[in-house]
Amino acid sequence: MTKQIQFFDTTLRDGEQTIGVNFSVEQKVQIAQALEKWGVDVIEAGFPVASPEDFEAVQAVSRAVKHTQVTGLARARKGDIDACVKATKDAVNKQVHVFIATSPIHRESKLHMTKEQVIQSIHDSVSYAHQFFDIIEFSPEDATRTEPDFLVESIETAIHAGATVINIADTVGYTNPVEFGELFKNLRENVKEFDDITFSVHCHDDLGMAVANSLASIENGATRIEGTINGIGERAGNAALEEVAAALYVRKDYYQATDNINLKETKHVSDIISDFANMPVPHNKAVVGANAFAHESGIHQDGMLKNPQTYEILTPESVGAKKTTLPLGKLSGSHAVMAKLNKIGFNVDRAAMKDIFPVFKRMADTKSIISEDDLRVIMNQVKEAVH
Ligand code: KIV
Ligand code: ZN
């Protein structure tokens, strides 16, 4: 059966926790509008109690966004929830996101709370939020390092107090995809309300597994994925939502999932975040990197010229990126050089390439990329040598 997957974007909250990133309120509104166009289901616009600027941003996004759900983040405290109530007052659709850490290391070293106190806090905060919000997402922070039984108890407490979404946070990116499967198996077996609740995951990328963990969670019962555009976020960042969306699209056969993402807007939304965050996207970044649709080696270029599906599982057009490129360099083959020469107006065939290709190779040994102008120089040299 096809599953509907929701995308929860926290670029404006967890994404802004990236060192050196500080979006203005105007930029946050523009990002939220781009995210709405991209098709996310929920936008986490900030942490309203954290600062007057954060409050203002959540309020401005709530007013600017037309139909996407807007949420603010709240610790399990009344004051935080009150700030979310006020900041999201004008949102057409809203939820609140309440969290408290549940793992032993966080309970003992950070919160200085017993298990009983954490349970009481979950009950009190979620019940309080229930007076104001129909949709309440509860996150056990560091859920993946929490004792399995206590995780179930925390989740059951939140559900009984009114939570409608449970978000499993892999706060420090510790867990691997197989363990995510086991964690969800435990939840499916022990959380009585599992089928009536939306299960979400929030994966960090400390070991480079955030996207893989998000996808493994979808296979095991999660129907909401939290992350950020370009994977920005605290430390090594969050799950890159554009990668999750592309994986669900390319591997529809495997995940059997649909979503509301308008994939053609992907490059645009990635560019905006990169620009406002002042964080260039690495060239080799999946889906949105400058090299994601560029092929240099001779064998690959030859394959691409014969059938693009030999080396591309996703077309650049499908994510709104520029066309595939076959940059010419020292590893390029004669087929790609001939194709490029024909494209720029030289009518050359395979026989002519016997003279041209060695000249190309000599130049390619001295430069990383051979431009169209370089090709013209090469053709002049060949012409002179022949006459
Ligand atoms: O990483 C985390 O645990 C969080 C929570 C607030 C969900 O960002
Ligand atoms: Zn996080």
UniProtKB/TrEMBL annotation:
<dbReference type="InterPro" id="IPR013785">
    <property type="entry name" value="Aldolase_TIM"/>
</dbReference>
<comment type="pathway">
    <text>Amino-acid biosynthesis; L-leucine biosynthesis; L-leucine from 3-methyl-2-oxobutanoate: step 1/4.</text>
</comment>
<dbReference type="GO" id="GO:0003852">
    <property type="term" value="F:2-isopropylmalate synthase activity"/>
</dbReference>
<keyword id="KW-0028">Amino-acid biosynthesis</keyword>
<dbReference type="InterPro" id="IPR050073">
    <property type="entry name" value="2-IPM_HCS-like"/>
</dbReference>
<dbReference type="InterPro" id="IPR000891">
    <property type="entry name" value="PYR_CT"/>
</dbReference>
<keyword id="KW-0432">Leucine biosynthesis</keyword>
<dbReference type="GO" id="GO:0009098">
    <property type="term" value="P:L-leucine biosynthetic process"/>
</dbReference>
<feature type="domain" description="Pyruvate carboxyltransferase">
    <location>
        <begin position="5"/>
        <end position="267"/>
    </location>
</feature>
<protein>
    <recommendedName>
        <fullName>2-isopropylmalate synthase</fullName>
        <ecNumber>2.3.3.13</ecNumber>
    </recommendedName>
</protein>
<dbReference type="InterPro" id="IPR002034">
    <property type="entry name" value="AIPM/Hcit_synth_CS"/>
</dbReference>
<keyword id="KW-0100">Branched-chain amino acid biosynthesis</keyword>
<keyword id="KW-0464">Manganese</keyword>
<comment type="similarity">
    <text>Belongs to the alpha-IPM synthase/homocitrate synthase family. LeuA type 1 subfamily.</text>
</comment>
<keyword id="KW-0808">Transferase</keyword>
<dbReference type="InterPro" id="IPR054691">
    <property type="entry name" value="LeuA/HCS_post-cat"/>
</dbReference>
<dbReference type="Pfam" id="PF00682">
    <property type="entry name" value="HMGL-like"/>
</dbReference>
<dbReference type="Pfam" id="PF22617">
    <property type="entry name" value="HCS_D2"/>
</dbReference>
